[in-house]
Amino acid sequence: MANVVVVGAQWGDEGKGKIVDWLSLEADVVVRFQGGHNAGHTLVIGNQVFKLALLPSGIVRPGKLSVIGNGVVLDPYHLVDEIAKLADQGVMVSPDNLKIAENVTLILSLHRELDAHREEATTEGVKIGTTKRGIGPAYEDKVGRRAIRLMDLCEPNTLDEKIARLLAHHEPLRRGLGLEPIAASAIRDELMAIAPKVLPFMDATWDLLETLRRDGKRILFEGAQGAMLDIDHGTYPFVTSSNTVAANAATGSGLGPKAVGYVLGIAKAYTTRVGGGPFPTELTDEIGQLIGDKGHEYGVNTGRRRRCGWFDAVLVRQAVKTSGIDGIALTKLDILDGFEEIKICVGYLLDGAMLDRMPASQAAQAAIEPVYEVFPGWQQTTQGARSWVDLPAQAIKYVRRIEELIEAPVALLSTSPEREDTILVHNPFRDR
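The chain above was modelled as a monomer; its predicted structure follows.
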């Protein structure tokens, strides 16, 4: 089977954009299957830099079909803005190269307002570091069976009762939080104003994808965030609002599990995290600052500085298991050039006992301490390396030790943001 799923193997921001763009050259279809407009993918193609948040990375490649699956929550106004920005860069998006699931849940202005209000609250345990874009509240309405979906915009005569159902939940919630009431007519106007711009992209994408799959087309499933932000398997409650693990590629696109083939996990050669939550290997000293500066560790869409630390093999090994990862794309190895010594976390200490996994308990996650193996660094550069012979011997040893610890092979190694600066060990689309 030629289909490939790409998932982050840490807490997101692993450099999935470059890898998905690289793989999209081999793919016929690129599918986003979860998350909202918080993916933050940066693509560097020639002299152009594309910053995407919602659209699949394949959208910048001619001849590729991009699909936003039913597992995504869609802000229609952001979609239109992102399409316009791409047009300014010479990339035209039309119903010919973009399809959106008819049953996708919509993010409304009331979701964004609620998200921001919660995040700005000072109550202990409420603030988790969201992007304030309404993604979590939209997922809440989806599972609460009161969401407005894209197909609902085709049926304006039934929209009022759906808005009433939505507000039956949100009105008392807003009153309790001290937010101004919102009129049903305002929501209706918000939806009807954007409907003509987004409905042309609507399709029964589950049926389309199954047809393409049976026709032998290569499908690339693109995840957002990382496996340790999964609502079930991540560091709860400091997680995103959807399942980010590879299994959701099928559910979030409307296909059966057999449609998913090779699972490629993306991991940085060190670790970063945005927002709150546990981070065992976090470096709050000058080394962490240096890694962040060298790696330009700022959120693509938010500008927030990322927390930085040493590579956590326990964390990535857990992601390998929960996502069924077949191989790892290791990114940003070049950022570690020049360090005198480099550390890898190989276990955690909790109350004197050694753990080989991230505990599920929030209290335990906050209390664990990393156990490190220390490696001598390398002074030569790895930036731009395109074969193993271009790498310093100590860098190769570092990569090989990571493979042993995470129990998965490195399928490709990225040594700069440029697509060509990649050492290919195993092509997920071709080498089976």
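Residues 155 and 192 are 10 Å apart (CA to CA).
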